[in-house]
Amino acid sequence: MAQKPTASASVEVEEAVVATSASQPVEKTPEDREEEASKLVNRFAVWSGVAGLIPVPVVDTVAVGGLQLQMVRRISQIFDVPFSENSGKALIASLVGAMVPATSSIGAASMLKMVPVVGTLTSAFVMPVLSAGATYSIGKAFIQHFASGGTLLDFNPPDYREFVKAQKEMWESRSARSGGPSSKTTDPATTNS
């Protein structure tokens, strides 16, 4: 009598269990999604800062906008929200419009690169910080929106003005603590003690 070896039977069962468990996605908790999305936003903020170093005016702004669009697409994937590139572009544009002072300074910093030497050096310090800060604020606004059950279709940028302002302040204090180029220093000659 020939018996089938038990080792191959157990291997087949193990392979079936592995295949079944691999095909079933693990459900993420809301906290896991927010943590993953926050790490993603931090990474894209850094990349936007690097894109702000591109020495060609307008190209740097287009690169930052592309990174922000990609970031929103990835955040929507994390929160299982359907993403439409056209909707994403429109929302980022309208959210950036709600942040007019920040966006006008990004454009001005980009155009400053046209001024030889002085403009290039000045924008090399300003543009990365503005780009990273704007990307961080936009990412955090979309995380909050998607975490509360929102979609791209019901996103209303004016509702997030105060939130974006708070995120901007958080970014500035974070930059100040790290000693980044946006950190504010006090002049001992102007400080009265």
What does the model show?
The chain has one domain. Helices cover 70% and strands 0% of the residues. It is built from seven helices and no strands. Helix 2 packs antiparallel against helix 6, helix 3 packs parallel to helix 6 and helix 6 crosses helix 7 (161-178). The longest helix is centred in the last third of the chain and has 30 residues, at 118-147. The chain is globular, with a radius of gyration of 23 Å.
Keywords summarizing the entry:
193 residues, mainly alpha, 0% strand, globular, disordered C terminus
Count all strands and give the number.
0
Shape: globular
Structural class: mainly alpha
Q: Number of folding domains? A: 1
Q: Nearest-angstrom radius of gyration?
A: 23 Å
Arithmetic mean pLDDT: 73
Summed up, the helix count is 7
Order of helices and strands: HHHHHHH
First-to-last CA distance: 99 Å
Query: Main beta sheet: strand number and arrangement?
Result: none
Give the uncertain stretches in residue-range form. 181-193
Helix content range of the residues, please?
55-70%
Instruction: Bin the strand percentage.
Output: under 5%
Itemize the secondary structure elements and their pairings:
Blueprint: H1 6-23, H2 30-51, H3 59-78, H4 85-98, H5 100-112, H6 118-147, H7 161-178
Helix pairs in contact: 2-3, 2-6, 3-4, 3-6, 5-6, 6-7
Please outline what is shown here.
By secondary structure, the chain is an all-alpha fold. The protein has helices spanning 6-23, 30-51, 59-78, 85-98, 100-112, 118-147, 161-178.
